[in-house]
Amino acid sequence: MTQAPVTAGTPYGTIPPASPLPQRRPVSLPRLAQMREAGEKITMVTAYDATFAAVADAAGVECILVGDSLGMVCQGLHSTVGVSLQDMCYHTASVARGLHRVQGTAWLIADMPYGSYAESREQAMRSACELMQAGAHMVKLEGGGWTAPTVQFLVERGVPVCAHLGLTPQTVHALGGYRVQGKSDEGAATLRRHALELQDAGASMLVLEMVPAQLSRELTAELPHCHTIGIGAGSGTAGQVLVLHDMLGVNLGKMARFVHNFMADADSVKGAFEAYVHAVKNGSFPDDSKHAW
Ligand code: KIV
Prior knowledge:
This protein is an alpha/beta fold. Helix content is 39%, strand content 13%. It has an eight-stranded parallel beta barrel, surrounded by eight helices.
């Protein structure tokens, strides 16, 4: 009887160099629009390195966000304000390599960090170019009002843009802390105006963070060309996003109300991503009675 050769496996992680995975259809803007039209929820998680990105992709997550939340979860900062463009490019390139190695299909979004787009539209374009060259398919920037002309400038030059309204962590000091936005009539009206301006400027996605569920449901109906992605914004958005460490329960503090630890009932990280995808698609996450304001 011949003995099977002993294989050592791949050291230091197990992303296969040339993927034997079956070909999957890459996620693109038209595909996201089709999903929205068909009433299928869009799933997004943050990732900051090759392995987690590859595993999330293999579990069926459509969008990977290289969030500047990496300042907190990877770099130990108190806010996202200290994250540089160089940091963002480094992590975006790592994630992009992870996706390429598994013939990944996810749509890759990179955050424009604090100070990389406020000076001028030209500065924003230069920063966006660096992120796109690092492997991003889309860039995300925070804020409304003054950002609309910048979004239009980028979109006209071929850079897909995701906007971000509600709790915008880069301006946490100006907002007076991590608190729900758009609760007052005036706050809701401003948020609505900003969202419509960003859609008109060409933003094709909009993260709504810590916004009342009713307001984000209404905004979703009013923004047919801009897919709303909620985090602490209730179940009425076109999709959901969670920060990787939060959804895997890698957290020593008290978790925010809108978070769910998908690792609690899973036996692997891939299983946790799959449970998240399943729960978002079947509407069981977020549960507005537990996770929304
Ligand atoms: O930086 C980030 O991770 C984000 C998400 C919270 C949406 O912007």
